[in-house]
Design brief:
By secondary structure, the protein is an alpha+beta fold. Helix content is about 40%, strand content about 20%. Strands 1, 2, 3, 4, 5, 6, 7, 8 and 9 form a nine-stranded mixed beta sheet that branches. It has a four-stranded antiparallel beta sheet with strand order 12-13-18-17, with helices on one face.
Length: about 600
């Protein structure tokens, strides 16, 4: 089954059941300023899920492209993608659990021929406010699943929303394909990440409205939001191992092999996958009607990061010429039928990729100058030591692959093991940085740790805006690579909440705000509205750092002088730290 055939099969299946085709939306959400990109198929429909009447009626179906920037570093495995497609269907106050589950089940088993025995599902187990989802369980049993195929989970796994502190929310029921693998433990199930269970999609039942006090009341209009992962279904429909074996990627991999003159094999498999996936993502973003171009902020920053990572991987293959335009042409051919806009924007796409390639080469010049300075002091056959190679990497952003390449041209040896030792030493220093007393909570006091310290203040403020004033800092640790921030909160953050927090911080960065420092006694600081839970360590006179409109905190410093120095803020992990305390790890990036 081709990708085009699967899209058509899904849409026609739901149109036969009374659904109207809703046009795919821009990759930039119209109704949600809290996220940079559309991260789920339901985002364009938020106003209608909240009760607004949709012009097409109560039953909708569509195929929506989405971008999830949190997956960039995971790209190269069998499943993670930055740009992907969601197959979605919705009931806006029409059918509910039984009908939604039945249609999802029949599509998977009758249209895609997935054996019932290869499915597993999850249902909401309930809590002291909301009962166990007996209706969803009973529906799955009636459709032929055994009790052993149905798993019960709580709020972290099977509760959706609200998107903010208040709004529509409810239980969900996720669907999984079960790989032929042994259980990883006695508790093995869809909630673990051992690889046995692969999520296919989710049936969300928007049943309640949560108010500011945390109370739930049943909605008058109960909605259903069903989302299925297009690429994962395409893999299963063709009995393949991963998305790179489908017709979405095979022609692109073949083109890369042709124009790079480098054979695709196990030694360069991940590099190939990153190049192909990121090129595809860049083409879609550049073709978006919102006219996104590479930049140092917001959507443009993500686009720039994707393109530049692609260029680095192309260099890693040993290709010195700009092959991005040719790869983009192939992406356009693959997707032209399903998404005609990529053909219409062909010239713009190619031009922007050429410009960004040229710009990125210029950013490498400072690293090249220092490398040439080092090499100029060495003769053929002599060795560039590990400390120098690491300095090129750490200070100038010069990849070790580029250093090796230039050294080879000059017949100079590079102490790669020494480089690795310095790199590991740097990582260990970062990990153990908290073992001592450090000014202002910084484990390492350098330019990047200072930037991260200021980002921590913005993060604290953004969390309180998104999650409420009950959020308080419970600890932090900062080194030269990342910040770690612990805060009081009772549950896992949703992807939407994480995106909102990131958006608020990056908005403050983009506004180029001066960071002001004032000295005053503790009582005056408190009266000014400054927050801070560690006042006792600072003495009678404290420093209060003010980021106008965002943050006012008692702090020992140091901080940047202007938020623009932070570049771009990104949350890389959100997890539990202890009971009632969550932990966020985040980075800032000037590249």
């Amino acid at each position: 089954m081709t990708a085009n055939e699967l899209r058509k099969l899904y849409v026609s299946y739901y149109k036969e059941r009374g659904h109207q085709l809703a046009a795919a939306a821009s990759l930039v959400p119209e109704n949600d300023a809290s996220v940079l990109y559309t991260t789920a198929g339901m985002q364009p429909l938020v106003p209608y899920l909240l009760g607004k009447e949709h012009p097409l009626g109560k039953r909708l179906v569509n195929v929506q492209r989405c971008v999830r920037t949190g997956d960039i570093d995971e790209v190269g495995d069998d499943y993670h993608l930055t740009v992907f497609e969601m197959l979605g269907n919705w009931s806006l106050g029409d059918y509910f659990k039984k009908e939604a589950i039945t249609m999802s089940f029949e599509f998977l088993t009758e249209k895609l021929n997935i054996p019932v025995s290869s499915l597993a599902v999850t249902v909401y187990k309930g809590n002291d406010k909301v009962p166990y989802d007996a209706e969803a369980t009973q529906t799955w049993l009636e459709l032929g699943l055994s009790k052993e195929q149905i798993f019960r989970y709580g709020d972290d796994e099977n509760w959706w929303g609200p998107a903010g502190e208040t709004g529509p929310c409810g239980p969900d029921s996720e669907m999984f394909y079960v790989n032929d693998l042994p259980d990883c433990s006695e508790e093995c199930g869809p909630a673990c990440s051992c690889g046995k269970y692969v999520e296919l999609g989710n049936n969300v039942f928007m049943t309640y409205n949560k108010d500011k006090d945390g109370d739930l009341t049943e909605l008058k209009q109960k909605n259903v939001d069903v989302g299925l992962g297009f690429e994962r279904l395409l893999i299963l429909a063709n009995s393949l191992q991963n998305v790179y074996e489908t017709d979405l990627f095979v022609p692109l991999i073949n083109k890369l092999e042709e124009i790079s003159d480098v054979s695709y094999d196990i030694s360069n498999e991940k590099t190939y996958k990153i190049i192909c996936e990121h090129t595809r993502a860049a083409v879609f973003i550049l073709a978006d009607p919102k006219n996104i171009v590479p930049s140092n902020s917001e959507q443009g920053y993500i686009l720039r990061r994707l393109i530049r990572r692609t260029i680095r991987m192309i260099h890693k293959l040993g290709v010195k010429k700009n092959i991005l335009p040719e790869l983009a042409q192939e992406v356009i051919e693959i997707y032209g039928e399903a998404y005609p806009e990529v053909k219409l924007c062909r010239e713009t796409i190619i031009e922007e990729l050429k410009k960004e390639y040229d710009k990125f080469n210029k950013t490498l010049q400072s690293g090249l100058k220092m490398a040439n300075k080092y090499f100029g002091k060495l003769q053929a056959g002599e060795c560039l030591n590990g400390q120098q190679a690491f300095k090129l990497y750490d200070t100038y952003g010069f990849p070790i692959e580029f250093t090796l390449e230039l050294a080879g041209e000059k017949e100079i040896i590079v102490d790669v093991e020494g480089f690795k030792g310095k790199f590991e030493e740097h990582q260990e220093k970062s990990r153990s940085g908290a073992a001592g007393k450090f000014k202002g909570g910084l484990a390492e006091h350098n330019r990047n740790s200072v930037r991260l310290h200021t980002a921590t203040h913005l993060l604290n403020s953004a969390l309180r805006q998104v999650l409420g004033d009950s959020v308080f800092q419970r600890g932090s640790h900062i080194n030269s690579e990342r910040l770690r921030f612990d805060f009081s909160f009772h549950r896992k953050l949703s992807e939407e909440e994480i995106s909102q927090v990131e958006s608020i911080v990056n908005k403050a960065i983009k506004e180029n705000l001066d960071v002001n420092c004032m000295e005053m006694n503790v009582e005056d600081a408190k009266e000014s509205g400054a927050i801070g839970i560690f006042e006792s360590k600072y003495g009678d006179v404290v420093k209060v750092y003010d980021i106008p409109g965002y943050s006012l905190e008692i702090c020992g410093g140091p901080h940047v002088s202007n938020t623009a120095e932070l570049g771009y803020f990104k949350i890389i992990k959100e997890q539990s730290s202890s009971s009632g305390v969550r932990r966020i790890k985040a980075i800032v990036d000037l590249d």
